[in-house]
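Batch job 17 of 40 flagged for manual review because the log was empty.
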Amino acid sequence: MASKAPRLRCLFSSHTSPAPIIRQPFSRPFATEVPDAPTPPRRPTTTFRDRLNLGPSFDDFIASPPSAETSTPTSSDLASSTDGPNSEPPLRTALVGPANRKRQITRLPTWLQTPIPTSPNYKRIKSDLRGLNLHTVCEEARCPNINDCWGGSDKSAATATIMLMGDTCTRGCRFCSVKTSRAPPPLDPHEPEHTAEALKRWGLGYVVLTSVDRDDLADGGAHHFAETIRKIKDKAPGMLVEALTGDYAGDLEMVDLVAGSGLDVYAHNVETVEALTPMVRDRRAGFRQSLRVLERAKGAREGTITKTSVMLGLGETEDQLWEMLRELRKVDTDVVTFGQYMQPTKRHMPVHNYVTPAVFETWRQRALDMGFLYCASGPLVRSSYKAGEAFIENVIKKRKGRRSVAMMDDVREISKAASV
């Protein structure tokens, strides 16, 4: 009988009984109870808030109700409170920033503060523009007059400057807040038709068209601009059109194309005096090049009014302004406007000085004395200025009226001669 195999005991087995399982008491939380979360590590402090506090406050851009202390000064008040027309009254200052880093800044003068646009007409015009995918320089350049131009009692009393060829420019001037890119989106082929339809719907008597610079295009967008003007004249023959164009990189044939498309006013801005042009404008622009554009536009079509605009407060001198006006008169420029340069963002060139309304009035009178047909001059005056457009509209209508009378006289003379 086979012997039984010995039973071996595992050397790794334990003689002790397994440890009892201790169950922790379980508590059910309430549905609205927030569990204790671990405290996150504290983020290091940054200087962004400090830099933000050093900038202008929201109140600086809003016009406060007139009072004895904050009323807008008149030209006579400024003249009596200063030593001369070129003197500046003391500006308001304020301490801003954290307690340990206070910094003194200069507040905007009261004559540069404007109300927030809230009128129903402003909202209607903005809705029309978005619906037709149109852009305006009023919005892109952050014009302070948008409340006055868009907020008329009805659409016929409103003015909007349509910006053609998109909202992205190929140039980067240091004063301008329009977006820039080397390769902007392609042109919208329906834009001329949409623009003409929108303007016909508004029933305006005077409209301003402008555009971004498109150096990426062979013609600089001149054919697109001219086609838009023709569409407007086809849909609304009585509407007066002002075209604020670029310099087309000095291609004067493109200037002839736009000037001969049926417009009434050809505008091109020199922006500043010749000495400051390299620091203010894009390197592809030039003061002399702008003068050639204005001269060519004047001779392209009989009766065309030429116009330009200048910013003050960039550091220009009185002698430089005199020389600039003389050069503009040499090329027979009809209209000039002066306005205060206002820094759009901290990335743009700073304001050198705030020019008083009395100084603007002085330069307006000087320009008229030099033979300019019209001059709009004031802190809030811009290239497309509603009051200036009304004056130019009257001038054009009077000229057309005289031309019609002269043509009728010629017809009568021819009829008399034929009857004899």
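Reviewer: the log was empty due to a logging misconfiguration, but the result itself is present. The longest strand covers residues 305-312. Unflagging and moving on to job 18.
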